[in-house]
Amino acid sequence: MLVKTKAIVLQAIKYRDNDLIVRCYTQKSGIKSYLLRGILKSKKGKFRAAMFQPLTQLEIEANHKDKEGLDYLKDAKVARPYASLQTNMYKASILLFLAEILRNSIQEEEENQALFKYLEENLNWLDQAEKFANFHLLFLVQLTQYLGFYPNYTKIDLPYFNLLDGNFQYEEINKYCISNPNSELLKQFLQTNFEQLHHIKLNQTKRKDFLEMLILYYQLHLQGFKKPKSIEVLHQLF
């Protein structure tokens, strides 16, 4: 079936000598993978390898099969050229990290308009942002809403957050219950948005500890979720 859709690149892997396998999150069909033959060799084709950098936003025309396997990409163009995401070292490191998170988190080959809109809007926000040191933290917190394990904050005033159950509670009942300072930070992130994010002040140690907690939260709720290799780069830069 021939489909025109927006797509966000999650990964491009070299295949054989001159080919790429590109994995995308599409607006209409969820996760899809495409084999691009000869893209690393030919300079005359319609595709360029630079189009498939992590989290590039594309408009594509593709032939999607109903069965598993690689699909055919008929046409593609960059939907929104970034102003700074791929040239600013700090933002580029966030892109690599988030692309790895999304590859580990999203598996469905089905439409999810709300999730696609979330990714699209907030990548565009980061591209324009001047203060973004905590962007990846709020991004991960809010992403859980679309993945099915957003923290239950109906009892947000209670001191402990249970990573296993996703609830705030009065006392510690298992080894996954956390208290200050990470539970208090989580409360702040649950009650803010990207425009107000710069009001949360963190040093490198607090930012690292909170991110490690979020990764554990993802591991507890997503089967097979792996700790991103790129996390160490973020720890060093932020």
Report on the structure:
It is built from six helices and eight strands. The chain is α+β, with helices and mostly antiparallel strands and 238 residues long. It folds into two domains: 2-78, OB fold (Dihydrolipoamide Acetyltransferase, E2P); 89-237, Up-down Bundle (de novo design (two linked rop proteins)). Strand 1 (2-15) and strand 2 (19-26) form a beta hairpin. The termini are far apart. The mean pLDDT is 94.
| Low-pLDDT windows of residues | none
The helix/strand order is EEEEEHHHEEEHHH
Number of strands: 8
- CATH domain class name of the largest domain: Mainly Alpha
Most strands sheet:
5 strands, antiparallel
Determine the structural class based on helices, strands and strand pairing.
alpha+beta
Instruction: Give the integer mean of the pLDDT values.
Output: 94
The percentage helix is 25-40%
Query: What value does the Rg take, in angstroms?
Result: 19 Å
Predict the CATH topology of the largest domain. Answer: de novo design (two linked rop proteins)
CATH homologous superfamily descriptor of the largest domain? Recombination protein O, C-terminal domain
Total individual domains? 2
What's the arrangement of strands in the largest beta sheet? 3-2-1-4-5
The count of helical stretches stands at 6
Specify the CATH architecture of the largest domain.
Up-down Bundle
Which overall shape is indicated by the principal axes computed on the Cα atoms? elongated
Distance between the termini: 44 Å
How much of the sequence lies in strands comes to 15-25%
Function: Involved in DNA repair and RecF pathway recombination.
Family: Belongs to the RecO family.
GO biological process, one term: double-strand break repair
Protein name: DNA repair protein RecO
